[in-house]
Amino acid sequence: MQTLDKTHPKLQELKTRLTEIDDINSASSLLYWDQATYMPPGGAAARGRQMATLRQIAHTKFSDPAIAQLLEDLRPYEESLPYDSDEASLIRVVRRSYERAVRVPADFMAKMSLHRTQSYGAWAKARPENNFAAVQPYLEKTLDLCRDYASFFSGYEHIADPLIDGADYGMKASTVRSLFAELRQELVPIVNAIASQPIADDSCLHQTFPEDEQLAFSLKVIEQIGYDFQRGRQDKTLHPFMTNFSIGDVRITTRVRENDLNEALFSTIHEMGHALYEQGINPEYEGTPLATGTSSGVHESQSRLWENQVGRSRNFWKFCYPQLQAAFPNQLSNVPLETFYRAINKVERSLIRTDADEVTYNLHVMIRFDLELALLEGNLAVRDLPEAWNERYRSDLGVVPPNDSVGVMQDVHWYTGSIGGMFQGYTLGNMMSAQFFEAALKANPQIPTEIEQGKFSTLHNWLRENIYQHGQKYTAAEIIERVTGNCLSINPLIRYIQQKYGEIYAL
After folding, report:
1. pLDDT tens figures, 121-153
2. Cα-flanking dihedrals φ and ψ of residue 467, to 5°?
3. Phi then psi dihedrals of residue 8, to 5 deg
4. Alpha carbon 334 to chain centroid distance?
5. 271 in active site
6. Quick check: 101 and 67 in contact, CB under 8 A?
7. Given a cut of 70, is residue 217 above it in pLDDT?
8. 251 - beta bridge partners?
9. Which of 117, 128, 240, 243 is least buried, going by the fewest C-beta atoms within 10 A?
10. pLDDT digits (tens, 9 = 90+) for 283-301
11. For every residue of 57-91, which 3-state class applies, written as one string?
């Protein structure tokens, strides 16, 4: 593990400035975590102002011309170093972020931050009331702000490109569309083949499972896998997320339904996957832009790898199921492992993305991505979004939401102030997770056997060595090439789905 040069004066000055900015951003993140977990509703207005103030201060500090001068002064030093040195990587990543940041005025970032808080509060109230009309004006303002944001990046091919690039550097709408079309062509026949069979019985998951006992079991599982509770914690929220304030403080959230064992268990494992990534970053990067995941796709690959390739595998439950039965003897003592395994891997055309199985999940993402592009292009008005949503679900998945709460309002993303650049990372992450897992198994064929024995260190250490420790040092494309020797491909994901679900459903 490399350590950053502590002697170059200009580099140290840059790091000092970056750490100050990181402290401000971390304080803002802590305010958001509080808003999404424990804050009383009455604090919403002030919280929005507070977060907007911090966002504006951080943006102003980062876009200071003094940063540009430091980067220019450091250019000869950077060019004298190997590309993959920590010092050259830090300068390169800061320069890329700086060139993006200076295009956007600080007061605009503050305005967007304030709107995000207001929009989230409106959504949190309107969703349980099934009141899309209450959030429509917020969503219309979000769309206007996202278009304005894109306008700061002239020369784009598609208006969504600056938004996509901000989350998944190097990606464009055209690239994502091409990958999605290729993936869709392979997935639809598999979905149709499974849907023609009787739906799997998952009634064992829909008994009464007390909340406290679900949470206790979930925490036990992620601690066994490797989540460090000395550097993390879990709390409840409306829409689960992971957030970090430092490498030593990486928190996750979950939500619980007492009549659905899937909800808390797999959302906890999912968010743990995000957290393992952040906890595994080289501690030398603390306080710098290197100390975070490199893209939404790579980040999502880690949550999906642990949730699906591991957490929904038969090997995992050969180890964990006796513990689960012990935790819920009245509900599961007479349920065979194979019945439980098939239940947690039930494939069906469904309404809710976060509940969707591995086979249909990416179709949910594609619907959202297409609707985002239509909104940004001006080909779809926000007032028509619920109808467009319902029609896409009818045509793509054969189901129609009974109301907007489980339809267009189900995801928090658009209601935290961003349309475009959010959803593609989920499917890119699914593709990467299969590609990374293949590489891990090639390097360590014993991993499935170890998982069956409750041993996760080989896989965890391989991911930490090859992905986690690097933080944002390498781009997603570079990480994929370094780890797998290939560029991003749909093929590993299709192979994984065909093998696993071909066996379950005798395809």
Report:
1. 999 999 999 999 999 999 999 999 999 999 999
2. -130, -60
3. -70, 120
4. 36
5. yes
6. no
7. yes
8. 243
9. 128
10. 999 999 999 999 999 999 9
11. HHHHHHCCHHHHHHHHHCHHHHHCCCCCCHHHHHH
What band does 51 get if pLDDT is binned at 50, 70 and 90? very high
Tens-place pLDDT, residues 451-460: 999 999 999 9
Element (H, E) at 500: helix 491-505
Of the listed 78, 87, 263, 271, which one is catalytic? 271
Q: pTM to 2 decimals?
A: 0.93
Is the separation of the CB atoms in 269 and 221 below 8 Å? yes
How many other β-carbons are positioned within 10 Å of the β-carbon of residue 76?
8
Amino acid at 356: A
Distance CA 83, CA 62 (A): 24
Q: Is the pLDDT of residue 431 over 90?
A: yes
Residue 455, judged by CB atoms within 10 A of its CB (0-12, 13-18, 19+), counts as middle
In 214-247, which positions are buried (b, 16+ CB within 10 angstroms) versus exposed (e)?
bbebbbebbeebbbeeebbebeebebbbbbbbeb
254 Cβ partners below 8 Å, 6+ apart? 215, 218, 234, 235, 236, 237, 240, 263, 264, 267, 268, 271
Reported for 155-160, long-range contacts at CB under 8 A and 24+ positions apart, including other chains, are: 158/373, 159/376, 159/377, 159/420, 160/372, 160/373, 160/376, 160/420, 160/421
Kindly state the tokens that stand for 189: 């026949």
Identify the bridge partners of residue 250 per DSSP, sorted by sequence position: 244
Q: Which two tokens stand for residue 57?
A: 């201060």
The secondary element (H helix, E strand) that includes residue 369 is helix 361-377
Separation CA 468–CA 462 (nearest Å): 9
Query: Using CA atoms, how far apart are residues 473 and 135, in angstroms rounded to an integer?
Result: 38
Rg of the chain (C-alpha set): 23
How far CA 274 is from CA of 268, 281, 296, in Å, comes to 10, 12, 10
Task: Please name which of 505, 390, 397, 421 lies closest in space to residue 100, comparing C-alpha atoms.
Answer: 421
Other beta carbons within 10 Å of 443: 13
Dihedral sign for Cα 415, 418, 419, 424, please: negative
